[in-house]
């Protein structure tokens, strides 16, 4: 099983970024103050500087676009479905010896 990662809300991330940028604290100091890893603070600052407040929003679990993922299949024609299921039944009957 994977490691469960804690998520932080945008105001908390913004507070950490402000402590670094406005108050001049270092990554490690901010991390110690907020009881989080300093690498997380560095990542938040980089995202904030690149994208602004949008960079602090949670990105996990969100699709990046409509073209991402498995393509939708067309609905199967009822006659084709019947033929496919009959063929499956015949195979199963042969395997079971009936």
UniProtKB/TrEMBL annotation:
Region entry Disordered, spans: 59-80
Domain of life: Bacteria
InterPro entries listed in its UniProt record: Homeodomain-like_sf, Transposase_8
GO molecular function terms noted in the UniProt entry: DNA binding; transposase activity
Alphabetized SUPFAM superfamilies for the sequence: Homeodomain-like (SSF46689)
GO biological process per UniProt: DNA transposition
Protein name: Helix-turn-helix domain-containing protein
Gene3D superfamilies xref list: Homeodomain-like
One Pfam family per UniProt: HTH_Tnp_1
